[in-house]
TrEMBL record, chain B:
InterPro entries: Glc/Gal-6P_isomerase, Glucosamine6P_isomerase, Glucosamine6P_isomerase_CS, NagB/RpiA_transferase-like. It catalyses: alpha-D-glucosamine 6-phosphate + H2O = beta-D-fructose 6-phosphate + NH4(+). The keyword Coiled coil applies. Keywords: Carbohydrate metabolism, Coiled coil, Cytoplasm, Hydrolase, Isomerase, Signal. Pfam families: Glucosamine_iso. Belongs to the glucosamine/galactosamine-6-phosphate isomerase family. It comes from Diceros bicornis minor (South-central black rhinoceros). This is Glucosamine-6-phosphate isomerase.
Length: 436, 271
């Protein structure tokens, strides 16, 4: 229900005994919801003179905005890049199952594919609101085929393309319609990338840099043309070099347009990126951090690992990295990724699915909020975003206990071998840390 | 800890002195709590409470919330009337008294929103709003217990020095002392502090069956001295309560710093 008399008559739900993430801090506050939106209870009290119709005790849990996963290739036996008739139902299945991991909005991601696949698959993945049926689809993330050969990772070489000939027309020919597209990852060193980036951003599509051998200058020029995101920082790009930091150097570049904010995703599963690298990136540019799962690790596990690995990053920062920052990247922060008044909320919590690690305890409020029952070691008093100096490393903090647990058997990413092995190949050596 | 007996004498002004702010807040909260419980409020019998804002009553509100959360106190059959509200400040401004009461009290208790009355500083006709407020108090059967504070210039509510001691709810211009005292809530910027407010009158509070004034801190000591050791005077409007049949002043030690030792000893019962 949205607005009007219907919304006003809808029941008011009050979540009590909880901490909520609001204004960058975790506060002991109740969360009020009505008609799918977060409600201002003070306004309800003084203007409508109403109280809650139902109260729910959250048992001291943290209520966080639903996570937004901007790069997810599939899951639960579904691969979005497979050109089948059932892509729509595959997306719906993943949408339903990721709710229990706290993800309430996502961008189904397609890896490098031939044009026939894009033409067939893209129309079957429309933008869709979330709800009890599943997480919302914000639009498709097209990762490739306009990427670097050397850094293609697991992407099939045969289907890589360039847009040197006809710039944006090549893009349209390859993808077909851009109606359902939200993000495009490309390599900015490809010829005429600036025209393409400008054309895409003019259509409201977020351009991300990734699978690239661009140097810092090329990356900066791409940002000046409109790019705002970096796909899985560190993976599938040139490593940081002190004389040419490459794409990684964007985090601290002073050549970016004034007011432009760069976001970056990192695979925070403890395997694709060393925790020390996570920390470096986070400390260099905390406001741009996003966690995402591009591996078999569920989003809530990645959030926990990120929190743990950065050993000093606050719970609030970790949660924001998975909710507020992706919302800001996509320009949705007024409605999603926050618990501010007026933001989207859901109808009620859902239980974690079978096979959930016991203490993950993520109950998703479909729509935009989720409950996180954090493990005891992380449920300390809320901390502000303070310096990390003087914080003692928790023992074994680079491999938190939850990573040693076998991932939930329900999480299988078809094409895992292709993707995981490819990424390891790109870095030239097996990922540190051993077996998942 | 210093406390007087709970036995109530009629027609006296009591001065209750506690060692510190926390104890004073607790004493006041317990008194209000007991008053409400002893009254036995119900469907047709509401307890009416007048309420203040500011930093002084915060401790008292916290304690009342604690008693409510413990299950000892319900506000289901309590009607509240706040003393004042700024004019021209949006209701949801963080410094409005609506916001203060919501964040520090109402959102933590079970009061019916229809029974929580605060003057509307953005009403189209401010005097009509004041008259309507007086009418609501009358319709509620008058105030059983009016809790108030004192300004550094001895004012009660926004009845600034020079206010009539028989005044009713009305629009008032704030005195410079008050604006200066309030500046800390507006980032220290005097230009952001509202200059007018709607306030209950001295006469409105005097009509209450019982009055409790909370005064804590050394900065209020001179005002307390003027209020109870000097005469009834419209320049120190709290002094009007010397003539109220049932008033209690609840203070901490610091607030008594300007009083005569003799006065303090008398009220502490140490002759």
């Amino acid at each position: 229900m949205r607005g009007g008399q219907g919304a006003v008559r809808a029941p008011v739900l009050q979540f009590t005994n909880c901490r909520i993430l609001r204004g960058r801090a975790l506060l002991w506050e109740d969360l009020w919801v009505r008609g799918g939106r977060i409600l201002d209870p003070e306004k309800l009290f003084f203007e409508e003179r109403r109280v809650a119709d139902e109260q729910r005790d959250c048992g001291g849990c943290i209520l966080a905005p639903g996570f937004i996963d901007v790069q997810i290739n599939g899951g639960f036996g579904v691969d979005f890049s497979q050109a089948t008739e059932g892509v729509g139902s595959g997306v719906a299945l993943v949408a339903r199952r990721i709710l229990s991991h706290g993800v309430t909005s996502f961008c189904p991601t397609l890896v490098t594919s031939p044009p026939e696949v894009y033409h067939k698959v893209l129309p079957q993945i429309p933008v869709k609101s979330g709800g009890p049926h599943g997480a919302g689809v914000l639009g498709v993330h097209l990762e490739g085929p306009f990427i670097s050969r050397e850094k293609r990772g697991a992407h099939p070489e045969a289907h890589l393309r360039s847009f040197e000939a006809n710039a944006f027309h090549d893009v349209l020919d390859t993808y077909g319609s851009l109606d359902n597209v939200r993000i495009v990852t490309l390599a900015p060193e490809l010829g005429r990338s600036h025209e393409v980036i400008q054309a895409l951003t003019a259509r409201g599509i977020c351009v991300s840099l990734g699978h690239s051998v661009a140097d810092l200058q090329a990356a900066e020029e791409a940002v000046q043309s409109g790019a705002t995101f970096i796909t899985h920082l560190f993976n599938a790009m040139l490593p940081f070099h002190h004389r040419d930091p490459g794409i990684v150097g964007l985090l601290t570049s002073d050549r970016l347009p004034r007011g432009r904010h760069i976001f970056y995703g990192m695979i925070a599963d403890g395997m694709h990126t060393n925790p020390a690298a996570l920390r470096i990136a986070h400390r260099a540019h905390p406001q741009g951090t996003q966690t995402l799962s591009g591996s078999i690790a569920p989003m809530d596990v990645c959030v926990r690992h990120f929190l743990q690995a950065t050993a000093g990053c606050s719970v609030e920062s970790a949660l924001e990295a998975a909710s507020l920052h992706p919302a800001q990247l996509l320009g949705l922060e007024k409605r999603k990724g926050t618990l501010d008044f007026g933001a989207d909320a859901g109808q009620g919590p859902t239980q974690g699915g079978p096979g959930q690690p016991e203490d993950a305890g993520v109950l998703g409020v479909p729509g935009q909020t989720s409950w996180c029952s954090m493990t005891p070691s992380m449920s300390g008093p809320p901390t502000s975003q303070a310096s990390w100096c003087g914080r003692r490393r928790r023992p074994g903090s680079d491999r938190g206990p939850w990573l040693e647990r076998t991932p939930s058997p329900s999480w299988t990413l078809s094409g895992l071998g292709r993707r995981g092995a490819g990424l390891r190949g790109a870095s030239g050596s097996p990922a540190p840390g051993g077996q998942p | 800890m210093n406390c007087l007996s709970w036995k109530l004498c009629v027609t006296i002004m009591r001065l209750v002195i506690l060692d510190n702010y926390d104890l004073a807040s607790e004493w006041a909260a317990k008194y209000i709590c007991n008053r409400i419980i002893q009254f036995k409020p119900g469907q047709d019998r509401y307890f009416t409470l007048g309420l203040p804002t500011g930093s002084t009553p915060l401790g008292c509100y916290k304690k009342l919330i604690e008693y409510h959360k413990n299950g000892d106190l319900s506000f289901k059959y309590v009607k509240t009337f706040n003393m004042d509200e700024y004019v021209g400040l949006p209701r949801n401004h963080p410094e409005s008294y609506h916001s203060y009461m919501w964040n520090n009290f109402f959102k933590h208790i079970d009061i019916d929103p229809n029974n929580a009355h605060i003057l509307d500083g953005n009403a189209a006709d401010l005097q009509a709003e004041c008259d309507a407020f007086e009418k609501k108090i009358k319709e509620a059967g008058g105030i059983d217990l009016f809790v108030g504070g004192i300004g550094p210039d001895g004012h009660i509510a926004f009845n600034e020095p020079g206010s009539s001691l028989v005044s009713r709810t009305r629009l008032k211009t704030l005195a410079m002392d008050t604006i200066l005292a309030n500046a800390k809530y507006f980032d220290g910027d005097l230009s952001k502090v509202p200059t007018m407010a709607l306030t209950v009158g001295v006469g409105t509070v005097m009509d209450a069956r019982e009055v409790m004034i909370l005064i804590t801190g050394a900065h209020k000591a001179f005002a307390l001295y003027k209020a109870i050791e000097e005469g009834v005077n419209h320049m120190w409007t709290v002094s009007a309560f010397q003539q109220h049949p049932r008033t209690i002043f609840v203070c901490d030690e610091d607030a008594t710093l300007e009083l005569r030792v003799k006065t303090v000893k008398y009220f502490k019962g140490e002759h």
